[in-house]
Design a protein that fits this description.
The protein is built from twelve helices and three strands. 31% of the residues are buried. The chain is mainly α.
């Protein structure tokens, strides 16, 4: 087991009583009691603090961020797979991307008030508003990495489920997300912060046989074409082609 490769000898400095009490307070907020609270201490130690103190090994939370990011992607993906069986892979992928993006993790971090327990160096504090979202998101990732190392995947997955439960979509929202235009809208907003643009043209023919041709552009580039008996159908087909090209649909 991964945690058995580590021991308390990794931490060269003792954690004073005041810090331990603060970390125990944080454990209550997080909903997890650490076997080795040093993992939580490391998760709540920014590299700016480690390098401004006399820490010999410069222990900080960067490697826990890396690990936590991987654990989050797997655990949230597994949660969505279990919660919404039969839903298309593209929809699940988009939903996971939304849930684990930096702004979402920053909101979770704020809800747990992680910033109150994070040790920051003076240089970082002077610039704390710049990149605050990334700082909060990275801290949450480090927390998840610490819980994983202190326990196992099943336990950290349960903590993640508890944290993310209020943000999971309802069946109605998920049904709407299965619409190709909705999926493409989410992709475009997340990637480029703008909406897809559709153009519809009439194809030659009688009123009975008339077809419509639609194109969809994202960030100024045409990504898909579609044909249909009406504008709505043509736009949906164009969105489907764009999603297929993006390996989402």
């Amino acid at each position: 087991m991964l945690t058995k490769r580590w021991s308390l000898e990794r931490w060269p400095m003792e954690i004073d009583e005041e810090r331990r009490n603060r970390l125990k307070e944080l454990e209550e907020r997080v909903g997890y009691r650490f076997s080795q609270i040093e993992w939580l201490h490391q998760a709540m130690t920014h590299k700016s603090y480690a390098y401004e103190t006399n820490s010999v090994e410069k222990i900080n939370n960067e490697v826990l961020e890396f690990l936590g990011d991987a654990v989050l992607n797997l655990a949230v993906g597994h949660l969505l797979y279990q919660r919404f069986p039969g839903v298309q892979e593209g929809t699940l992928s988009m939903l996971r991307s939304y849930l684990v993006k930096k702004s979402s993790l920053a909101s979770l971090s704020e809800g747990l008030r992680l910033e109150r327990y994070l040790l920051l160096g003076k240089s970082r504090k002077m610039d704390e508003e710049k990149g605050r979202t990334a700082l909060l998101a990275n801290t949450y990732e480090a927390l998840i990495g610490a819980i994983f190392l202190d326990s196992n995947f099943d336990q950290v997955s349960e903590i993640i489920r508890q944290h993310f439960e209020p943000y999971l979509p309802t069946e109605l929202i998920l049904e709407r997300m299965n619409n190709p235009k909705t999926l493409l809208q989410i992709y475009s907003q997340q990637t480029y912060r703008n909406s897809p643009q559709y153009q519809v043209h009439h194809e030659p023919g009688s009123d009975r046989d008339r077809r419509f041709k639609a194109s969809v552009s994202i960030n100024g580039e045409v990504r898909g074409w579609g044909w249909g008996r009406n504008k709505k159908e043509a736009e949906e087909e164009a969105a489907k082609e764009a999603l297929r090209k993006l390996n989402i649909y």
